[in-house]
Structure to design on (640 residues):
């Protein structure tokens, strides 16, 4: 980062390309800290004017990550720009590795609950199954996880599933249900007597030394395998023991193991089979709507669905989906006590995959496992269907969560401008999600289009889309509008983005008619209007005369804001394409002038036109004497 970018009049305190200006200038103390950041991994904490921590983050390289917040504010999301304006101080905690930074960040967020961090939580306290850390361990359900050396399995989001598993353990194994302090000394002193469980063969009487600790611990190892979903391993172990007993003519013991195998088979038959390859997998998916999101995890062991778990996010507006997936994986693998899978399925690559892989490697080294966990993003076939099924569960849970928030009065209030637009356009429901389309071209060249999205009256930039016109030649706004409407509402975008409550077309009756025809043909029953620039008139399908909204109304102002944003987005994309085409055709066709020198020329002179006017001396200062001579001769030759 150069020194100028951190001066008081830097990008953090000067107008950006949208005319926005931050509310403060960087203090000298903060500038000094930013210029002297270390490159080591660690955790950073941003503080406001009251010394409150408002954001906690981790980084593999603290200098690169922290300084990125103060560069090019206009390119950040609205939430990030707001965060940067409130930063008054910075505090660092250096760590030895990126994994240590990840763990520390997670703990600090739980402790401090910073305002601008994503809030990720379970919706309630789910039960676990615990295998206690004591002589002759017990197995029972609990909601209290203690650091006492016991093994906890879960959490179980469905109590019915947990009860089914506990019943299977009770039927297959003879695990004691008492809470006696069964030390070797107490057993040797004959302090205990067998209870009813022994007589009905639910327990083998370790309290009176009728079962050795070695045999009991071997049984508990089998219980742990069952809790991890490794039923195939248990079957193989039990079958081997049954055959050995039969060879030794111990038919009573062999019959007991046969009973266990039959009970295990009944339990396995009740489990939902998802795959036939019997590979251990964790499947992750995130659904998002507005400022809320839900992340779901499917735990698949030996090809069977062992259980699922879900988490709710808040404060996720404008957050990239890759970040949400990364946060979900962090949360899950920092807290789970389950065995690690062979594969992790996600709908898209998490933004912090390197850190997650390092965390998994650390976990495996701690438990002595030697295997590689593979990240997979399935595209087609049965594996993709597993991710889709996980995503469908996440969407369902999110809709239920938001419904509950509405009932509790916690849902975000609908803005006045959105309510006004519902009234003025006579819509059936508030247009909370608005999508607006605009075309852009220059004398028929480089035709492009844009789609922007407003949710509750505010831009949702993660749902913006840009289109290159593919099927239309020349400047035909009507046909171009029809193409992009069809691509948005009948192609892959129709599945990846939610349907809007209102569609706005930038233009008059012609553009509106083209869009409406495509929507009718596709069976998309979303209200659509056209907004003409000249008189700010609103057009409805199948109506000849326009409607005029009050010039000072909040509803018209919202429509103008939506339309202007779509126009800005389309123009920006069009200029990028023109710049690339101009760069390639005008400058790079000169012998010896590649992309790097062409970009340097444009940066120095501002445009190709100014490069043409430049003197040989000025060109030489920018790209050297030999290249300058070629450029000067090229354009002089064209002028002649």
């Amino acid at each position: 980062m150069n020194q100028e970018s951190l001066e008081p009049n830097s990008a953090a305190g000067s107008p950006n390309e949208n005319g926005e200006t931050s509310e403060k200038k960087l203090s000298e103390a903060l500038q000094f800290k930013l210029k002297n950041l270390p490159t080591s991994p660690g955790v950073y904490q941003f503080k406001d004017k009251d010394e409150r921590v408002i954001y906690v983050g981790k980084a593999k390289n603290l200098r690169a990550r922290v300084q990125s917040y103060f560069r090019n504010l206009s390119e950040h999301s609205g939430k990030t720009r707001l965060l940067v304006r409130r930063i008054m101080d910075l505090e660092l905690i250096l760590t030895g590795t990126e994994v240590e930074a990840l763990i520390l960040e997670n703990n600090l967020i739980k402790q401090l609950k910073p305002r601008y961090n994503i809030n990720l939580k379970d919706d309630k306290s789910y039960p676990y199954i615990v295998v206690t850390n004591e002589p002759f361990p017990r197995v029972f359900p609990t909601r209290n996880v203690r650091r006492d050396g016991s093994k906890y399995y879960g959490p179980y989001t469905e109590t019915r599933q947990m009860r089914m598993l506990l019943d299977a353990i009770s039927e297959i194994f003879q695990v004691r249900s008492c809470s006696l302090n069964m030390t070797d000394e107490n057993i040797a002193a004959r302090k205990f007597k067998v209870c009813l469980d022994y007589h009905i063969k639910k327990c083998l009487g370790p309290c009176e030394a009728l079962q050795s600790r070695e045999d009991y611990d071997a049984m508990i190892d089998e219980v742990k395998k069952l809790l991890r979903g490794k039923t195939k391993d248990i079957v193989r172990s039990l079958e081997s023991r049954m055959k050995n007993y039969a060879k030794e003519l111990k038919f009573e013991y062999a019959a007991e193991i046969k009973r266990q195998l039959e009970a295990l088979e009944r339990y396995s038959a009740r489990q939902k089979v998802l795959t036939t390859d019997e590979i251990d997998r964790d499947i992750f998916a995130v659904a998002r709507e507005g400022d809320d999101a839900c992340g779901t995890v499917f735990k698949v062991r030996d090809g069977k669905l062992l259980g699922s778990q879900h988490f709710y996010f808040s404060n996720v507006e404008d957050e990239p989906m890759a970040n949400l997936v990364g946060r979900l994986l962090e949360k899950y693998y920092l807290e789970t006590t389950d065995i690690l899978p062979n594969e992790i399925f996600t709908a898209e690559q998490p933004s912090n995959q390197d850190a997650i892989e390092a965390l998994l490697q650390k976990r495996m080294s701690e438990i002595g496992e030697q295997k590689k966990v593979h990240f997979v993003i399935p595209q087609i076939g049965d594996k993709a269907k597993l991710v889709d099924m996980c995503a469908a569960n996440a969407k369902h849970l999110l809709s239920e969560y938001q419904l509950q928030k509405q009932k509790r009065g916690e849902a975000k209030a609908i803005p006045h401008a959105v309510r006004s637009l519902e009234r003025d356009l006579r819509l059936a429901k508030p247009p909370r999600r608005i999508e607006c389309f605009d075309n852009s071209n220059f004398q028929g060249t480089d035709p492009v289009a844009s789609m922007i999205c407003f949710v509750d009256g505010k831009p949702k930039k993660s749902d913006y889309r840009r289109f290159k016109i593919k099927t239309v030649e020349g400047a035909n706004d009507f046909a171009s509008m029809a193409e992009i409407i069809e691509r948005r509402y009948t192609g892959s975008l129709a599945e990846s983005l939610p349907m809007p409550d209102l569609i706005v077309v930038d233009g008059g009756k012609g553009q509106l008619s083209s869009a409406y025809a495509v929507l009718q043909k596709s069976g998309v029953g979303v209200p659509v209007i056209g907004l003409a620039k000249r008189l700010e008139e609103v057009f409805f399908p199948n109506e000849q005369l326009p409607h005029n909204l009050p010039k000072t109304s909040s509803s018209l102002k919202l429509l103008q804001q939506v339309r202007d944003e779509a126009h800005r987005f389309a123009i920006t994309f069009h200029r990028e394409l023109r710049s690339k085409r101009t760069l390639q055709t005008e400058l790079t066709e000169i012998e010896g002038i590649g992309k790097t020198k062409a970009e340097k020329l444009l940066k120095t002179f501002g445009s190709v036109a100014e490069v043409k006017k430049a003197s040989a001396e000025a060109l030489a200062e920018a790209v050297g004497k030999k290249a300058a001579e070629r450029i000067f001769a090229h354009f002089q030759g064209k002028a002649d």
Q: What stands out?
A: Confidence is low (pLDDT under 50) at residues 1-24. The longest strand covers residues 304-314. Residues 75 and 81 are 9 Å apart (CA to CA).
